[in-house]
Specification:
By secondary structure, the protein is an alpha+beta fold. The chain has 11 helices and 11 strands.
Amino acid sequence: MLSKRSLGSSFFIEIVVVMTAMLIAIMIFVSYMLSSYINKNTEKTLQQQAATIVQYYPNKDDLLKEFNLFNLKRVFDIEIGIEDSSNQVPIKRVLLNNDYYIKVTYPYPNSNKVIVLTKNISNERDMLINIYMIMALVTLVGFLFILYYGYRLSQQMMEPLHMLTNKFNNMNDSLLEPIKTSQLPSEFKQLGEAFNDLIKKIQTSINYRKELYVGTAHELKTPLAVMRLKNQITLMKYKRKYNPKEFLLENKETFEQNIKSIDTLNSMIHNILEYGRAEGQQFEKTQRINIIRFLAQKSEEYELLAHSQNRDFLYNFEIERFVINIQPLLFMHIFQNFVQNALKFTPEGGLVTVTVRTDAKNFIVEIIDEGKGIDESENLFAPFKRSAESTGAGLGLFLAQNAAESMGVKISLKNRTDGIQGAIASIIFPFDRFLHNH
């Protein structure tokens, strides 16, 4: 029994049923038209012959005098008779002695008599039966062809899916190659592009994970080695000096540095946990929202945070409405990181501004600060990359980049060009992805 979930089987059954029904309907129609044509042609011929006889022999007595009706039947296989016009049917078919006959009556003018032409149509009927049998055989052959064609077509339709399935079955972490959509039928290109987007997300996740693990191992190893060395030195000092007060005073700086190292390790662990959450958010369901209203609500919250840090916060949106499909948690991860960095590096009394704008191809969200700017020659989105003034673990922008690639947006960080010191963080939504595809 065919599975109801099999797309190929369902397509095969549907095309066989539809095409078989069409074939049977066509054969029935052709058979009907053919039998009607033969019967009508026989009736018309007999009526014309009766009319011709009446035209040449308007008096039935003349017809009986000049012709031997029995001889006419032998020559033309038509029986001619003259009967009363009462209870006569113009055309009548009868079965006599296993033979089929057709009787056609035609009235004599100014008389109560009619001429009756009777013709044996058994041969015509046998011919129709033979035609019906041939058409039934053609229908059977056609049905077999439909089965073959439907099977081939269903296999051909499923071939791209089988190719995609084999492609994914042969994939692993070290072999993630995009699908060549040029080799797919046009109907499957969108599916292939969706698979390529998924492959890209997986590649990004794997690459970032490798960078994160290597960077984390390196970053954790250094402070742990320093702490171990300082603790060894401290223990050696403690063995030489037994005065606890003097020991604490001499090693106060060591303890404080150890506490800072522990705080740094905690910060790294926190960012690693954030990375794990961000990975889960990559598969968050998209929502259709008015991003202007969404940004306004979040900006109100950050305005309160900025005022608590003695900084000004301004958000100005000239566009009132812009509805797109996004993953809100991923977007908030990026937006929050940029705003928090802007507040961190903007001095007290400075201004952080959030604006939106569009160009020919993109919708752009910008977070503008009044900090010292950035070194544009460095890749600040690399893991554990920190500016000179930063005290964090250096994973914030790395996680923001990871979230951006998962969403399909672009992010950038560059210095201001309006004569004021500071940086501009941009979140760029390409129209061809966030408008046309949805």
